[in-house]
Design a protein that fits this description.
Length: about 425
């Protein structure tokens, strides 16, 4: 029996046991977990520092180190996310439809768990608990496979979760971690059709593409974010400046950070100097643009074709000048990763057209794309942001981790 067989069979058994848990039992456990995470924060941070030291030795960038770091404040934030899941309505058992058919059968369609969720994710260790809390609230078992950089942190977090489960007399196999981060085992997990009901990859473009190519189990595609902000001809330029600075610099290492700026030509000469001056006071940003628009900037470099489709996760931004709203929409739809896009405008008709015609999970008017987040949307700690159109789209909360089942009741009915 391979390690994937072992983890898979244990998860399958655990998913059956979790079906017996009531909403109150699940909420009691999650409150216990939040408390235990805070109480064990010193141990968790000590293990995280081992990962931080190795990452620095490997020359990981400061931005990616920030993704990896766990502090007391961030652990409290993870615990807060778990507590928020407690407050959310339990979708399991929710009746979606109920009716009596022509044959006299009483038919109900109810929400049920997916079963066993596998998740492959990269640097951010908070994902382990975020994903588990949502999976647990929906009676799903979860198998986690984190990145090599966060291995000690993930082991520590899963250890706390498993001890909390045991303390509440719940199967600890509700959460399991694949501690060997080798690519071969990851690919075996992607093909574990006997155990895994759905696989959720959460990370960069390379990970997502690998999963799409290798997976044999159903996949919910998430989160590469080539996020655009379009500054329209009728934009409030003060607002646009504020929004772009927030979306680009607040936390550039996350998938809802802006990577691409599209500007209407009518406001480009006014907006670009204003943005350059203002953003430099917050953090230096490298702008990359086309040759014929370099002169509009004090400091910019020539963009390559790849730059316009790139998720930089850094203080870098591609810039495109357009002559119309239609050109902006076409440009964004061509290069979009279908995550989050925004328009800054005072033109209501332009705003409505942008929201209707842009193909993305979240489309903003006059607001930062940094808001695309399950916690902010009131969904609790998200398991990911789906960029596909099947089953789940956008920030994935509890309902995204459910399926449905038909319950049919008769009284000796037979089909004629």
């Amino acid at each position: 029996m391979t390690i994937i067989d072992q983890l898979g069979s244990q998860a399958k058994k655990a998913s059956s046991e979790l079906l017996k848990l009531s909403t109150s039992q699940k909420n009691s456990f999650l409150m216990r977990l939040a408390q235990d995470l805070v109480e064990q924060s010193a141990m968790i941070m000590a293990e995280n520092q081992k990962d931080m030291a190795k990452a620095k030795e490997h020359g990981i960038s400061d931005i990616m180190l920030d993704r990896l770091l766990l502090t007391e404040e961030r652990i409290e934030g993870i615990a807060k996310g778990v507590r928020q899941v407690v407050e959310l309505q339990d979708p399991i058992g929710q009746v979606l439809k109920g009716y009596t058919n022509l044959d006299g059968l009483k038919i109900l369609q109810k929400r049920v768990p997916l079963g066993v969720i596998a998740m492959i994710f990269e640097s951010r260790p908070n994902v382990a608990i975020d994903a588990f809390s949502l999976a647990f609230k929906t009676n799903n078992a979860i198998i986690l496979r984190g990145g090599r950089d966060a291995l000690n942190s993930n082991i520590a977090l899963v250890k706390v979760a498993r001890k909390s489960l045991e303390a509440m007399a719940i199967t600890p196999d509700a959460i399991q971690l694949l501690e060997d981060p080798s690519h071969d085992l990851a690919e075996e997990l992607m093909a574990a059709t006997a155990y895994v009901d759905v696989l959720i990859p959460r990370g960069g473009a390379r990970l997502i593409q690998t999963v799409k190519e290798k997976a044999k189990v159903p996949v919910i595609e998430t989160g590469v974010g080539n996020v655009h902000i379009y500054v329209d001809a009728l934009a409030d330029l003060e607002m646009a400046t504020k929004v772009v600075i927030n979306a680009k610099t607040q936390r550039p290492s996350v998938c809802n950070a802006a990577e691409s700026l599209v500007i209407h030509r009518d406001v480009a000469q006014s907006f670009i100097p204003q943005l350059e001056e203002a953003i430099s006071k917050v953090h230096a940003v490298e702008f990359r643009t086309e040759e014929d628009t370099l002169a509009l900037f004090k400091n910019a470099t020539l963009a390559s074709e790849e730059d316009f489709g790139m998720e930089f996760l850094d203080y870098i931004m591609s810039v495109k000048i357009v002559d119309s709203l239609e050109e902006a929409i076409d440009w964004i739809n061509h290069y979009s990763s279908h995550h989050s896009e925004a328009i800054i405008t005072k033109d209501l008709a332009a705003a409505e057209r942008f929201q209707d015609q842009i193909d993305a999970a979240a489309v903003y008017v006059n607001a930062s794309t940094r808001f695309t987040d399950g916690f902010v949307f009131g969904l609790g700690a998200e398991i990911g942001i789906s960029t596909q159109k099947m089953h789940a789209r956008g920030p994935m909360g509890l309902e995204a981790l459910t399926s449905s089942k038909y319950y049919i009741n008769g009284n000796g009915n037979i089909r004629q």
